[in-house]
Design goal:
127 residues; alpha+beta; Double Stranded RNA Binding Domain; 4 strands
Length: 127
């Protein structure tokens, strides 16, 4: 009985792992996880590389205590014989005083951009 459970567990774990997505070292672990989860039903081999994140800020008051941040993200995707660049951008208000809140907002924006890039990958692959 124990052998059966071990074999069942190992076989179920191996079916979860998808080997059709390849990432380069520019991706953080959470980025890889989110993209693997989002692209789990893609049947094609994809090479996802060159993750670039650019943060820009503009003051919105004279004291410089508040600003708008613009974050831009881009990745290169290779599949079959094609190579495409996909971009995403988020604008959000931030406050220097509440740095913990701005870090949390930055993580949330990053997750939203990863999701947007994932949706664009699906759309481009299905064409």
């Amino acid at each position: 009985m124990v052998r059966f459970l071990v074999i069942f567990f190992l076989s179920s774990c191996s079916s979860i792992e998808k080997n059709n997505l390849t990432f380069d070292s520019s991706f953080e672990g959470m980025d890889r996880f989110l993209l693997k989860r989002c692209l789990s039903n893609i049947g094609q081999d994809l090479e996802i590389s060159e993750l670039k994140v650019i943060n820009l800020a503009n003051n919105i008051n004279s004291e410089g205590l508040e600003f708008n941040s613009k974050t831009s993200m881009s990745v290169d995707i290779k599949f079959q014989n094609e190579e495409i660049k996909i971009k995403s951008m988020q604008m959000s208000p931030t406050n220097y005083i509440s740095s913990n809140m701005s870090l949390e907002l930055e993580k949330q924006d990053r997750g939203l951009m990863i999701q947007d890039i994932c949706d664009k990958i699906k759309k481009n692959i299905q064409q």
